[in-house]
Design a protein that fits this description.
The structure holds 2 protein chains of 2 kinds.
Chain A: H1 2-15, H2 41-55, H3 64-69, H4 73-82
Chain B: E1 2-12, H1 18-25, H2 53-61, H3 65-69, E2 74-77, H4 83-94, H5 101-105, H6 111-120, E3 126-129, H7 135-150, E4 154-160, E5 177-184, E6 193-199, H8 212-221, E7 228-230, E8 233-238
Parallel strand pairs in B: 2-3, 2-4
Antiparallel strand pairs in B: 1-5, 1-6, 4-5, 6-8, 7-8
Helix pairs in contact in B: 1-8
């Protein structure tokens, strides 16, 4: 699980070109979008694609649950492990 | 038709100040093969990561106080647009891969002018032009017409980079080049030069095979008032009776 968190953080930084952010700056329980890391809707699409490609998981675009899955690193880890 | 240059920013393969551009124009300086991509200083830091080299160069040249603050119409011209980005999308599509949403959204021809208008809260009209090898002059014609018609100042921005190797068979190597000008229809103090535009009725093509935009940069910085012929137009710069 710790490895998956580290992989996800690296993936977020690499995919979204977050030059000034290191994995340690991303707090597991904090929101990724809006406040917290401050990502926006285009980032969400980009990140969704990267997660789909890397972990071979199916993401439903218009589901309220998808919002929950993408809320934080902790939620993403749970989502990927369950799929 | 005559319009006046109030401000100009040129970025040519890394050269971006009048001293170095004047040296290049006078054949005292050669262009380097490599260059550092500039960062537009006014651009929101968090959004810089989304900008491609093409957008960074174009937005860097738009860093003119009047362009950033006066809500002026923008005419943006580029023959190829962000071709380096387009080709990565085409390759992904050919491999059956999903396309990057960010790259796709920002690969359209008016993406850079859109990024500029969002960053500067500019709500004036934007026109985007691509017109083959004559793009720089055709864009200049559009900008001049809008300037004359509305009697206001306009921003004219032209940007093209060398094409990726995959397209080399269609176009010889050219330096990365960007020109942004604030154009006005009024003869006023502090104008830098007047641009005279006439129809090239005789279709007298310039013997100079240099692209029109490079001739324009060279003429501007070497204060050369000889006519540049390209496609349908003849253009000359007047440095004496402009202000």
């Amino acid at each position: 699980m710790t490895d998956l968190k580290a992989t996800l953080k690296s993936l977020i930084i690499e995919t979204l070109d977050l030059e000034d952010i290191s994995p340690e700056d991303i707090v597991d329980s904090e929101p990724l979008f809006g406040e917290g890391l401050g990502l926006d809707s285009i980032d969400a699409l980009e990140l969704g694609l990267a997660i789909k490609k890397t972990f071979d998981v199916k993401i439903e675009a218009n589901s309220e649950k998808t919002k929950e899955h993408f809320y934080s690193i902790n939620n993403l880890v749970l989502f990927i492990e369950q799929n | 038709m005559k319009v006046y240059i109030k401000n100009i920013n040129v970025w040519l393969q890394g050269l971006d100040n009048s001293l170095s551009l004047t040296s290049w124009a006078n054949n005292e300086l050669k262009l380097a093969e490599d260059f550092i991509i500039p960062k537009p200083q006014y651009y929101p830091k968090g959004q810089l990561r989304r900008l491609s080299p093409f957008s960074k160069i174009a937005l860097h040249c738009l860093d003119i106080p009047a362009a950033l603050s006066q809500n002026l119409p923008l005419i943006f011209a580029s023959q190829h647009g962000d071709l380096a980005k387009t080709i990565t999308l085409i390759k992904d599509a050919a491999l059956g891969e999903d396309l990057s949403p960010t790259k796709f959204a920002l690969s359209v021809h008016n993406a850079t002018s859109g990024l500029f208008s969002i960053a500067t809260n500019n709500t004036a009209a934007t026109t985007t032009i691509s017109a083959g090898a004559n793009t720089f002059f055709e864009g200049l014609i559009e900008a001049s017409m809008q300037c004359q018609q509305t009697n206001t100042q306009v921003i004219y921005s032209y940007c093209d980079l060398d094409v990726p190797e995959e397209y080399r068979q269609f176009e010889q190597e050219k330096p990365a080049r960007c020109i942004t000008m604030i154009l006005s229809s009024k003869r006023e103090n502090h104008n830098l030069a007047a641009i005279d535009i006439a129809l090239n009725n005789a279709k007298a093509d310039s013997e100079n095979t240099s692209p029109a935009e490079l001739s324009f940069i060279r003429h501007f910085y070497s204060k050369n008032n000889q006519t540049i012929a390209s496609g349908n137009y003849l253009i000359s710069l007047d440095f004496k009776s402009c202000s």
